[in-house]
Specification:
Elements (H helix, E strand, L loop, with lengths): L1 H6 L3 H11 L12 E2 L2 E2 L4 H13 L6 H23 L7 H23 L1 E2 L4 E2 L1
């Protein structure tokens, strides 16, 4: 949304979106996907986390499996951060997106399940 607004006459709205996400994401343009000549408002990993959490809220799974997945995917994300910091690999945006999506998927499903709401029916379970 922010790139489309940036490319149009609504640059103030684009700035508001970037400012909204700035407390939770470093927003490094080199680590972000670009659309319409402008970076997306969050980095590839954060984008994956948000998309994964939205999808995960719709996918019920056993709590034990979700907790195991959450721990595994958090460890994989940490490993990606550390191996890049050690210069073992470069700026792999697609890897960040996928790892973030897996983490978000587990977290979103876990949160939705803990809240006791089934998004498919929008009723308390």
């Amino acid at each position: 949304m922010a790139p489309a607004l940036s490319a149009s006459a609504y640059s103030l709205a684009a700035l508001a979106i970037f400012l909204f996400f700035s407390p939770v994401c470093h927003q490094d343009p080199a680590r972000s996907f670009w659309l319409l000549g402008a970076p997306v408002a969050v980095c590839a990993r954060c984008l994956g986390i948000y998309l994964g959490a939205a999808a995960g809220a719709w996918i019920p799974a056993p709590r034990r499996m979700l907790l195991s997945g959450l721990a595994l995917f958090a460890a994989l994300n940490l490993a990606d951060v550390l191996t890049e910091a050690a210069a073992w690999h470069g700026n792999w945006k697609l890897t960040r997106l996928i790892l973030g999506a897996l983490l978000g998927l587990a977290a979103g499903s876990l949160i939705a399940g803990s809240a006791g709401v089934s998004p498919a029916t929008d009723k308390l379970t």
